[in-house]
């Protein structure tokens, strides 16, 4: 902690300092001139115990104007004020910190101090990336979710409207999947879903986009495929599921698979999914499972 020998009450006598010390984020109380009054252990760990009492000294000189301007705006009542500044860590590295400045007014209304709350932008980006991953990835199979798949499909369709529609969308539905859960429990069902995801991933190219779009439904975007290739891929995926995926009782897992070519008649991701869904249900309805009839929606 910097040596703050000044005419201020001890930390133990100031409730605000106790709150700051308990916070995990970077928090500091500074004067409107940038002098440090108090900072919490998180700041001290970042800056190091040898840091001086001048908060601005930890900010690169080229950013002093922006730092002083933010303090001035906060002191003049524009609160909170957000500013991104570098902050020199104990190891000499300059970390990108997102600061929020909030004025601390005295009883007479004058502002003598500013509360600066900082978040390490590098850590923030990691957290945001992790949150995006949680939203975009199915936690069971690791495949992308329906929401993310629809976003990517919409981009593909939008690109096609400008440069020409191409590709195909496959929808896969596992037959009698509910009976696995009913006979053996949801763990057995999860085992099958993970196995299907692994099998599909191993059979597709890196340029293909695979997602779990429902409980036992999967979708594949073949971005450049024409109908004959989409049919061959669909047949290969159906065969691979039947041959490689087994629940605990050893039964054969079969799937109904339909596909829709992405054409000018399909104006959105939603319409494309509906077309592929309809093709899949056409395969499922009334067809013997050993007779594989994979066809696009006409």
Which key phrases capture this entry?
five-stranded antiparallel sheet, alpha+beta, elongated, single chain, four-stranded antiparallel sheet, Beta-Lactamase, 2 domains, about 300 residues, Alpha-Beta Plaits
**Main sheet record:** 5 strands, antiparallel
**CATH H-tier superfamily of the largest domain:** Reverse transcriptase/Diguanylate cyclase domain
CATH topology of the largest domain: Alpha-Beta Plaits
* Range of helix content: 40-55%
CATH architecture of the largest domain: 2-Layer Sandwich
CATH class of the largest domain, please? Alpha Beta
Order of helices and strands: HEEHHEEEHHEHHEEHEH
Form type: elongated
Could you say which structural class the secondary elements and strand pairing correspond to? alpha+beta
Strand segment count: 9
The end-to-end distance, rounded to whole angstroms, is 74 Å
Oligomer: single chain
How much β-strand is present in the residues? 15-25%
**What count of helical segments does DSSP give?**
9
Rg calculated over all Cα atoms: 30 Å
The spatial strand order of the largest sheet comes to: 2-1-5-4-3
Mean pLDDT: 82
Number of domains: 2
Low-confidence stretches: 1-13, 288-298
């Amino acid at each position: 902690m910097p040596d703050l020998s000044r005419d201020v009450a001890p930390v133990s006598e100031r409730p605000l300092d106790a709150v700051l010390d308990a916070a995990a984020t970077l928090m500091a109380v500074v004067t409107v001139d940038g002098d440090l009054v108090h900072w919490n252990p998180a700041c001290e760990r970042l800056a190091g115990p040898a840091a001086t009492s001048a908060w601005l000294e930890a900010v690169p000189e080229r950013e002093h104007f922006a730092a002083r301007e933010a303090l001035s705006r906060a002191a003049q009542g524009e609160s909170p004020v957000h500013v991104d500044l570098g902050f020199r860590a104990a190891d000499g590295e300059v970390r990108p910190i997102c600061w929020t400045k909030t004025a601390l007014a005295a009883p007479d209304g004058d502002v003598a101090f500013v509360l600066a709350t900082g978040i390490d932008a590098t850590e923030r980006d990691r957290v945001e990336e992790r949150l995006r991953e949680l939203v975009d990835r199915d936690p069971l199979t690791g495949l992308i979710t329906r929401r993310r798949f629809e976003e990517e499909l919409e981009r593909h369709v939008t690109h096609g409207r400008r440069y020409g529609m191409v590709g195909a969308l496959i929808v896969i539905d596992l037959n009698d999947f509910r009976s696995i859960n009913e006979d053996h429990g949801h763990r057995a069902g999860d085992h099958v879903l993970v196995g299907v995801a692994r099998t599909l991933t191993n059979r597709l190219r890196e340029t293909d986009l695979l997602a779990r779009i429902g409980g036992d439904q999967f979708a594949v975007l073949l971005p450049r495929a024409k109908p004959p290739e989409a049919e061959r891929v669909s047949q290969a995926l159906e065969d691979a599921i039947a041959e490689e995926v087994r629940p605990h009782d050893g039964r054969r897992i079969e799937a109904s698979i339909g596909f829709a070519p992405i054409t000018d008649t399909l104006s959105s991701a939603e319409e494309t999914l509906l077309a592929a869904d309809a093709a899949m249900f056409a395969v499922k309805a009334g067809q013997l499972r050993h007779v594989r009839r994979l066809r696009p929606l006409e």
